[in-house]
Amino acid sequence: MNDESHIEESSTNGNSVFSEFSELRDLLLEPEHNKLERADERLKRLEDRKVDVTVDQVSHLLPEAIVHRSKQDQKLASALAPTVEKTIQVSVRRDPRPIVDAIFPIIGPAIRKSIAEALSSTLESINQSMEHRFSLTAIKWRLEARRSGRTFSEVALSHTLLYRIEEIFVIDRQTGVSLVHVSTEAAELHDGSVVSSMLTAIQDFVKDSFGSEEDEVLETLEVGDVNVWFEPGPHATVAAVIRGIPPRSLRDHLKELVEVFHLNYADELATFEGDVDPFQGSVAFLTSGLLEQKQEREKKTSPLLWLFLIAAICVLGWLIYRGIDARSDKNNLLDALDSQPGIVVTDSYTKSGYLYVNGLKDPLSRSVEEIVSLSDVNPERIVFDWEPYHTLSPDVVRQRAIALLEPPATVELMVDDGVVFASGFASTSWIELASEQAKYLAPTVLYNDVAVVHLEDIAIADARDAIESLWVGFAFGSSDIAETELARIDRLTGHIASLSAAAEIRDIPFAILVLGGASGNADAATNRLLMDERSDSVSRALVARGIDPALLVSQQKSEESNLEYEDVGRARSVELRVQLGARP
């Protein structure tokens, strides 16, 4: 029992001690414990992205961090360069307009300045070339080059050049390794490693031989007309190979090169272990330091250059005049072609010295060769391509009508408002044929021959007048035809034959009335008998001479017609009358 009580008492005491220890622990470690819990909760919340506290914090810290890191080294710029370049590429591909607008204020003046400098350099080069080739000074320099065995360009350079930096070497002071080497195009190329080793050896030789201090260096090395100037820096030395007589102020230029190089590559120079690749980014910067200065001379233009310019202006003026004149001749020819009836120029252009003319041409229009011969354009330099067509030009339509209808000399053709009018005299056969042929003039061209008189109609009218103007006389109381009247019978026969031929062509029926007459001195019965006998005598005489008897109708004259004649002999005659459009 006592043991159990002792155990319970010990347990109670132990719990009390543990409780006191826990309280002490909480008092000592509670702040740190709370911080750990808050940090753990914050991490969980950040992982779940339930809050954006870190975005705000980063936005405040990032600018300061970038500025701070940029002051230390160039690693941040190197790290961001690919991303920035990629961003610009994507932006340009998507929409180049913002980039164009941004660089517009500087790209325009830069281009204009570049063009102006290029033109100025070209003109100066031409002027110098003319002077160096043809002036008295150039002749002297050529003689000097021949005597000295040097090239003309070397002699000319020696007389015109004050100085020129032909090469620049950047040499590590500790190892003597050439970090960067740049040179002009005109300079003779040298191995940068070999030259830097030689220059370093010369520097060491001078120090060893003459007991120079450690920080003292050889500044100038002169070989003929070539000088090598050294400009040392903390880690590297710039060696410039200069041809000519450089001014002392050029030292400041070399000092600036050294300072800028050390500024841009301070880390690389401090940790240099033989790798020269990091320094190759300075090639463009060092190349811009290859300065050159020539002797200032009086700006005068060579007389030969003036002659050359005047000749060039004359040639240019002549070419312009010939071009304008040729263009004028071409335009005049095209106008002449286009103004011709039946010719339409649809297109014209010049290519390889040839004039090409396309258009429409009526086969009956004026000859193109004839038109070209009247112009000042070389016909051998013209290529025509015509498409045939039928024009409605009155002159050409009239020519087509003449060629198609072949009118006789007694017919005149005129064209007015798309209608071909024929007038004059023509045979019925031609009139009918022309009416058929006129259908082929053109679908829109009409033909009118109302004014064309048939020659057969004229022949019919003439024959009718001739027949009715003749009469056959008889003796008193006789019905026999006297010998003296047979000639009239023959004439009447010819006229009737002409009338019959013309009327047949015109398909006009006709009849000839043979009217017998008497003087009226006998009784009426006797007179009527004589009239019939006399008309029958004339009819028989005409039939005997080939006249179709069906055409002849014997009749008596009326008493009224007999009374009209004062001549008794005319009253006893036989007269003929022609009735057109009627059959006997």
Task: Please work out how many helical segments DSSP would assign.
Answer: 19
Report the CATH topology name of the largest domain: Beta-Lactamase
Q: On the 0-100 scale, what is the average pLDDT?
A: 76
**Superfamily (CATH H level) name of the largest domain:** Dynein light chain 2a, cytoplasmic
Radius of gyration (Å): 65 Å
Q: Globular, elongated, flat, extended or rod-shaped: what is the shape?
A: elongated
Secondary structure topology:
Layout: H1 2-48, H2 53-72, H3 75-94, H4 97-134, H5 136-148, H6 152-160, E1 161-172, E2 178-183, H7 192-210, E3 220-223, E4 226-232, E5 236-244, H8 250-264, H9 266-270, H10 283-287, E6 292-294, H11 303-339, E7 343-351, E8 354-361, H12 368-373, E9 382-388, H13 394-405, E10 411-416, E11 419-426, H14 428-437, E12 446-454, H15 455-469, E13 471-472, H16 486-506, E14 510-516, H17 524-544, E15 552-556, H18 559-564, H19 568-571, E16 574-580
Parallel strand pairs: 8-9, 11-12, 14-15
Antiparallel strand pairs: 1-2, 1-5, 1-6, 3-4, 4-5, 7-8, 10-11, 13-16, 14-16
Describe the structure.
- The protein contains 19 helices and 16 strands.
- The protein is α+β, with helices and mostly antiparallel strands and 584 residues long.
- It has five domains: 2-51; 148-294, Dynein light chain 2a, cytoplasmic (Beta-Lactamase); 304-388, GMP Synthetase, Chain A, domain 3 (2-Layer Sandwich), CATH 3.30.300; 394-456, Histidine-containing Protein, Chain: A (2-Layer Sandwich); 470-580, OmpA-like domain (60s Ribosomal Protein L30, Chain: A).
- The strands form four sheets. Strands 1, 2, 3, 4, 5 and 6 form a six-stranded antiparallel β-sheet that branches. It has a four-stranded mixed β-sheet with strand order 13-16-14-15.
- The longest helix has 47 residues, at 2-48.
